Amino acid sequence: MEKTMPKNFLWGSASAAYQIEGAYNEDGKGLSNWDEFVKIPGKTYKETTGELAVDHYHRFKEDVALMAEMGLKTYRFSIAWSRIFPNGKGEVNQASLRFYEELIDECLKNNVEPMVTLYHWDLPQALENEYGGWESPQVIDDFVNYATYLFHAFKGKVNYWITVNEQNIFTNFGWMNGMHPPGKHNEEKLYYQVNHHVFLAHAKTVIAFKEIIPDGKIGASFAYSPSYAVDCQPVNAMAKVDYDNLKNYWWMDVYAYGRYPRNGYAYLDKKGVAPTVSQEDTSVLKKAASLIDFMGVNYYQTSVVEYNPIDGVTQSGEMNTTGKKGSGQITGEPGVYKNPPNPHLETTDWDWTIDPSGLRYACKEITSRYDLPIVISENGLGAFDEKTSENEIHDDYRIAYLNAHVYELMQAVEEGCEVWAYCTWSFTDLLSWLNGYQKRYGFVYVDRDEEGGSLDRYKKDSYYWYQEVIRTNGATITK
After folding, report:
1. pLDDT of residue 376
2. Backbone angles phi, psi at 422, to 5 degrees
3. What pLDDT is stored for residue 323 in this prediction?
4. Residue 120: which of 149, 82, 155 has the closest Cα?
5. Mean pLDDT of the chain
6. Is pLDDT at 47 greater than 70 in this prediction?
7. pLDDT per residue as tens digits for the range 127-155
8. Nearest 10 degrees: CA dihedral of 57, 59, 65, 69?
9. CA distances from 406 to 187, 294, 356, 445 (A)
10. Rounded to 5 degrees, what are φ and ψ at 105?
């Protein structure tokens, strides 16, 4: 018998404002931390920026028309905080509000459910200048003010909301390895305090949301890499437990339970880097945890965990941002864990492990641990795509990747997991943050590279493949 997804399953795709919109200084938009950060030499591949990106700001109707033709059920996109509030707070920029209004209306007109991410890494630079952005608790009220403004503005039009995208990634890259704004290294105590501020911003936003849109659905999106112990030696099994408490449950437990993992907190407290948590903070986090509707998951890969000696590798290993396979380095926490490669699995050109069964593993673990519905808010393959002289893009490798992941997701649903949506990353090609335009993820090829291009859109083979998956509600997925 053919497998299909439950009725009304949201087959989707996703993007982020900075990576697609361009128009970085048009219609009254304020600068974001990313607009400034990419000016630092050597931070991005070939000094690429999002100033033009793939010009979605001016081409959104064309892009939504392609979504409609595909039959897409939901489109997850982020709103740029610095478009709505150029100074992070204060006066609202009506021109930018109109842009998002038109984008949402265009989606609704084409039967595409809008799924809005409030924060996908682009903080208004004005708040960075004023008080250090996420480093200050002042940011919490400014974020809630921004979020509640949008809830009122789009009430009745947007039912699905994501507070924060990949909090674990932007904080780690921003305060531990210097690869994202504000570009700081090994500021461990500050890193955990920043995370605490983000958690409180998320929590207070969830509480406000339920007062404004009580029937709406809200959660956060977590970059989840489920872990496997490298073998059955107890020392490595223990390293896996510690890894999960520090790298996975540290975030998901707060979203779902409103508290930090006790073992992880004890370890950080002993190191002198645990965040300061007041009783009031705890009650806010717990209240929000009782109100969230789903766990958002951005899934790309699993991790292998092995015990790391005290003089072992650190968190500051080089990351592969060039697509030169094998150039990424092993990282870890000295005396606790390290993450060697998995010898049983293939990797992408950027050294990301390809593990479709890990998506099923992730869903089952979340279902067992949190008993929450799941939204897969990102899953996809970054690759070097080539356009032929006939303007065709034969990305059979992407089709194989997505097919294998969706098959495992369908297995997870059969095994009792409640999954509401599956959003691929991404719909069109886009700027891949540090990796430039060469790392392509989309169903739609954008004629754009590090030097420029026409920005014309071309459907890849995967576009037609996903169109059939959606049309049949997953019946065309093969084992």
Report:
1. 98
2. -135, 110
3. 76
4. 82
5. 95
6. yes
7. 999 999 999 999 999 999 999 999 999 99
8. -100
9. 38, 19, 8, 22
10. -65, -40
Catalytic status, residue 26: no
448 burial (CB, 10 Å; 0-12 / 13-18 / 19+) is buried
Query: DSSP 3-state assignment of 103?
Result: helix
Q: How far is CA 346 from CA 227, 325, 351, 354, 401, in A?
A: 16, 11, 9, 6, 11
Over range 321-325, report the average pLDDT.
Answer: 77
- Nearby residues of 276 by Cβ (< 8 Å), 6 or more positions away: 193, 196
Q: Distance between CA atoms of 256 and 195, rounded to whole angstroms?
A: 16
**So what's the pLDDT on residue 444?**
98
**Active-site residue, selected from the candidate residues 106, 113, 306, 378:** 378
State the DSSP code for 353. B
Task: Kindly state the greatest CA–CA separation across the chain.
Answer: 64
Identify the pLDDT of residue 349: 83
Report the 3 state secondary structure along 233-280.
Answer: CHHHHHHHHHHHHHHCHHHHHHHHHCCCCHHHHHHHHHHCCCCCCCHH
Listed in sequence order, the DSSP H helices in 6-55 are: 17-20, 33-37
Domain at 10-471: CATH code: 3.20.20.80
**Predicted TM-score (pTM) of this structure:** 0.96
Q: Quick one: what percent of the chain has pLDDT higher than 70?
A: 100
Question: Which residue from 237, 232, 244 is spatially nearest to 307, judged by alpha carbons?
Answer: 237
Amino acid type, 462: S
What mean pLDDT comes out for the span 419-435?
93
Report whether 63 contacts 457 (CB < 8 A): yes
